[in-house]
Amino acid sequence: MGRYLIPLVLFMVLVGFLLVGLNRDPHEVPSPLINKAAPAFTLPQLKDPTKTFSAQEMRGKVWILNVWASWCVTCRDEHPLLIEYAKTGAVPIYGLNYKDQRPDALAWLGELGDPYVLSAADVDGRVAIDYGVYGAPETYVIDQSGTIRFKQIGPVTPDVWSKQVLPLVQDLNRKGN
Amino acid sequence: MKKLLFVCLMILSFGVTVVAWDVRPASGDDPVVEKRLMDLSKELRCLVCQNETLADSQAGLAEDLRREIREQIKAGKSDQEIIAFLTQRYGQFILYRPRVTPTTYLLWFGPFVLLIGGLLVLFRYIRYHRDSVKEEPLSSEDRRRATELLASNSGKETA
After folding, report:
1. Could you tell me the pTM of the whole model?
2. Rg of the Cα trace of chain B?
3. Would you identify the CATH topology of the domain A37-176?
């Protein structure tokens, strides 16, 4: 009996590891930016390139930065959800238009609707590098002090929104006031 | 044989595509910068494809990151500074050789622990079996029977 126990235990440990591994998405790389200051940037606005938008302007507010592009397929899936979230008015959503052509981006917003307070145009993707973006869509929740509190890689599904984003935003707003 | 040749050709053509995907230094670029860029980006992971180095990847992000590294090299940054820049943004995952920290001890030393464990089990097993076999010298009776058997056997073979 004893001689079979050790291999059995080892096997169960292996199965445990494999089970955990199966349920994890290897594309979700933990961001080192969580609880760090959101990188500063100043970029031209997508709709009116003569105006700029900078992350520093948002001090004192809880806000969401959503990285999107018209060439990004998953962004198209996420877009109607963002419009729904924006309608609730729970938190302002700002867009970072990532490596896009301006006419394409404008056409996309015209066709699908615009959930963003405004979008900043990151044409060469440098700001995205500062934010550690590697696959749009990506979404950041940034607090009053300009600290990144949460990052979602891939679409913000209704589940993520109601279980993670909304409670966090409410919590941050309570603490801030 | 034909099959083997086909497989060889497949492997060869794969090798050629990999080489063709390598970073080609843009003409007019400083070869010293390009050499450092190549060496650095071979140590870095492309986050989009994950199992490719930054040197091999053709993903848009990989191109942007190579551009970023190239500019930082030209700006006189050291390799350590550039790697620090990237790990601040993308985490240790971007390093193909993660640093030795408590969270990576298992990764770095696990295989050696397993190897030593396996060797210990093997040695114990061998010793156990060696001790359990008792060597007894042949008695004169056994020896007589053995020669008898051998003699009768060789007799049959010659017949």
Report:
1. 0.71
2. 31
3. Glutaredoxin (3.40.30)
